[in-house]
Design a protein that fits this description.
The protein is of the alpha/beta class. It is built from eleven helices and 19 strands. It binds flavin-adenine dinucleotide (FAD).
């Protein structure tokens, strides 16, 4: 394969991990990105490498492999900010704790490195949690990367290989087997084209556009915020019990026994996820809205709810919020982990990773390359 060239459309984490795997396999890579620099889901997320929430089976296997790959990639590209900090999902009522016990009793619990904690043990695992909790689920396998730094660090490492060219500010408008044309009419040739458009599902015509229009995919919009540096270090990332309503690992009988969700959880798919950035600020979210067209503005009342929840769990007042944003991802609506399709000979589309794209990206790229070079 030495010296073959792949053209990758899309500069998000999925496209960039595919570029990394291509270079590992000694392919030359040209990567096009429509924006001046990636601005979408891959830089708007929490950076959680979240093994605890993955469904048993293929998704968990990919999650565990991806966790290994993130760590080994960080050894050669330390700027991506990998930290094996683990997570604590906190329980604020007995029904949540019961569901945690149920998950921890499942066979893959050891691979996830799960343990159920009492209230005092939660405080020992993460002394910043001093609010009203009845227990929690510790996942030592969960980790975090810095979403604002990952893509740049990976591209820097790719450039060092001498096999990689990044072309920002160029939108692919025509993709066929063997070539891509951008919006200025420039042509990029390669024996393989991999299209990783994220949530831009309608941007391309031809076989890619048709495949995306027919794929079982929907989009989801999330609200997020970032605080000023916190006064203390959080030993782990934190999730609240509502997160168990969404993550497929918790799709167990006990989920039906959870207490009724609050109004905002029911109406805007709210859960609390809280991650400390390397510089000390806290990234806090999120909400899930599927109905399009999406609101162009963010809803302040939802931020008030997220802040209240975070303060109830931490038991201290959050620092000032310094940034707010919304992000959109695409998600497969059936049970596949992502949409990956060869839409014509030599053209592969990979998208719809949902809220797990950051976590799974290295393993998805490895899997795509094993598949296309089979
Ligand atoms: C708010 C939020 C929080 C999240 N938190 C997490 C988390 O903590 N952990 C986790 O695992 N996952 C998380 N996710 C999901 C994860 O961020 C996504 O699954 C992942 O980033 C998708 O990557 P992508 O490369 O497919 O898409 P994107 O990041 O959207 O990248 C696609 C890129 O392709 C470019 N593009 C599109 N069309 C063209 C074209 N025709 N020509 C050239 N370029 C094109 C776009 O400009 C874009 O930069 C979160 C998502 C959101 C929105």
């Amino acid at each position: 394969m030495d010296g073959q060239r792949v053209v990758i459309v899309g500069g998000g984490v999925i496209g960039t991990m595919h570029a990394l795997e291509a270079v590992r396999r000694r392919w030359d890579v040209v990567q096009l990105e429509a924006d001046a620099g990636p601005r979408r889901a891959s830089v708007r997320n929490f950076g959680l490498v979240w093994v605890s929430g993955r469904a048993e089976g293929e998704e968990l296997e990919l999650g565990l492999r991806a966790r290994e790959l993130w760590e080994s990639t960080a050894a050669v590209a330390p700027g991506l900010g990998f930290r094996a900090n683990g997570s604590v999902t906190v329980a604020t009522d007995p029904s949540e704790l019961a569901l945690m016990h149920e998950l921890a009793a499942r066979p893959p619990s050891a691979a996830r490195q799960l343990s159920v904690l009492g209230a005092d043990e939660v405080r020992a695992a993460n002394p910043a949690v001093r609010g009203k909790v009845v227990g929690g689920l510790l996942c030592r396998r969960d980790a975090v990367v810095e979403p604002g730094a990952v893509l740049g660090a990976l591209r820097g490492h790719l450039l060092d290989s001498g096999r990689y060219r990044f072309v920002p500010g160029r939108r692919a408008v025509e993709v066929t087997g063997g070539q891509v044309v951008d919006h200025l009419g420039d042509l990029y040739q390669g024996s393989l084209v991999i299209v990783c458009p994220g949530d831009a599902l309608s941007g391309l015509g031809g076989s890619v556009g048709t495949a995306l229009a027919q794929a079982p995919v929907r989009r989801c919009r999330l609200q997020m915020m970032q605080t000023a540096p916190a006064p203390e270090v959080l030993a782990t990332s934190i999730a609240d019990g509502d997160s168990m309503r969404y993550y497929p690992a918790f799709d167990l009988p006990g989920r039906a026994q959870l207490s009724a969700p609050s109004e905002e959880t029911a109406s805007s798919g709210m859960q609390l996820l809280l991650v400390q950035r390397a510089a000390g600020g806290l990234t806090i979210g999120d909400t899930h809205v599927y109905e399009e067209p999406f609101d162009f503005a963010v809803e302040e009342v939802l931020y008030d709810c997220l802040r209240r929840r975070a303060e109830e769990i931490l038991g201290w007042t959050l620092p000032a919020v310094v940034r707010r944003w919304a992000g959109v991802y695409s998600a497969a609506t059936d049970d596949r982990v992502c949409v990956r399709e060869e839409v014509e000979p030599g053209v592969v589309v990979v998208t719809a990773l949902a809220g797990r794209g950051m976590t799974l990206s290295p393993a998805i790229a490895e899997q795509t390359w094993a598949w296309v070079t089979r």
